[in-house]
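Q: Hi! First time doing this. I have a protein sequence and I read that you can turn it into a structure. Is that right? Here it is:
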Amino acid sequence: MVSDKTKLLLSRAYFYMLQLADGKSPIDGSELGEESIIKDLKVHNCLQYVAKFLGEVVRKSFNAEDEEELFDPALTGDENYNKGKSAGKKNRKIRPPFVYDAEKAAEIRISPTPCSLSTLVKEINAVFNEGKKVKYSELAEILVEQGILINNPYSSGGRYAAAPDADIKGIFTERKVTSYGREYFVTSYTQMGQKLVLEFLPLVAERQREKALKNDSEEVLNDDEGEKEGSE
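A: Yes, that's right. Below is the predicted 3D structure, encoded as structure tokens:
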């Protein structure tokens, strides 16, 4: 039989691994910079594999079928658990979808020097801090759809890289080397590139709203089915 202490350690390890595989700090849930080793494509794939394997171990240890049971704050004793994307819905405060406001968007700080998309996302969420946060992945997916970003063709670096002609829009990928000799590629956004990204915020808001409506509809449908089963 697995002790509560072992369950706590396994649950915490699983949660931390999920956060790292998602490119986030397991301590505060913030997006890690493009220069982080976690953004390396090979490391990312390895973390996802380990997280999947560890998830199976945790489920068997807990004898749990519901993902919510794996992240019980009472068991983990970690307040940050509820900030993770896999935290139990019952213990997580549900925020309304991101709502775009042109006046507020004008308050977003544009870096005078080229910065990463992660840095820009932090600036966006510092201004729009009432509803759901804008995610790095949401903007990156839109930029891929627009042909501005592509899947990383290099041997190391983040998940995405700038398209060959994206430099004319102020977005470029360059090779860098760490102090200990590791090569990596980082995608940067000039002031022009940052402003271009901000133009897609209304689309992020629209997609979050559509997703929220879909989730609400599914919950209503599930409640109706539950009531029918209870009356039979």
